[in-house]
Amino acid sequence: MEKTPRGTSVGVDDPYAVVERCDFLADDGRCRYAAEHGHSDPEFSRKRYADGLRCPAADPEGEWAWRDCPKFRATDTSRTCRRCGLEERRLAGEETRPLLEEHHLEYPDDGRTELAHEITVSLCRWCHAKVHGSWARVDDDAAPDPDGVAAAEGRRSKERSEFAFESAADRYDDG
């Protein structure tokens, strides 16, 4: 299994196997990095413009895989845990620890690969701890941890109480 720079497990054998798409891939198959950030790498941008901004990694018949692209990045912004499906519940105005955390499968600039990329998935705090504990995998068929379910339900109860109707007469009864 792949390891972090500190030597803990990332929970997958191949980080690229969990990638659905690059963050810079437009819906029409064009490379948004070349179009929007071309000044950062003019040579890369010129090559992409010469090919109509086509992403060579997005095409299954293309000449690249995701790992071949020097500008590839895949950061998951899902609101559910990739492993157990626990949904994020954020409370507006409260400084509570999020239920979901960003879990790195590949680290940019870690020196392990010629083209180091950033690849992340969303994991709940409990699955994140299990994956880094070396015994759990990201693709395990897992149920949400009971502590995670309790934390989510506690937040859900607070949400519902915020939406409960209370008339101003009852709220500000000066008696």
Structure description:
It is a single chain. With 175 residues, the chain is an alpha+beta fold. The chain folds into two domains: 109 residues, no CATH class; 48 residues, no CATH class. Helix content is 26%, strand content 10%. A three-stranded mixed β-sheet has the order 1-3-2. The longest helix has 18 residues. It is extended.
Summary, kept brief:
This protein has 175 residues and is α+β, with helices and mostly antiparallel strands.
Content of β-strand: 5-15%
Helix and strand string, N-terminal first?
HHEEEHHH
Number of helices: 5
End-to-end Cα distance: 67 Å
Oligomer: single chain
Count of folded domains: 2
What shape does the CA trace take?
Answer: extended
Instruction: Enumerate the strands of the largest sheet in spatial order, edge to edge or round the barrel.
Output: 1-3-2
Tell me the structural class.
alpha+beta
- Whole-number mean pLDDT: 86
Name the poorly predicted regions: none
List keywords for this structure.
alpha+beta, 3-stranded mixed sheet, 175 residues
Topology:
Layout: H1 32-37, H2 42-50, E1 73-75, E2 100-106, E3 118-124, H3 125-132, H4 146-163, H5 168-171
Parallel strand pairs: 1-3
Antiparallel strand pairs: 2-3
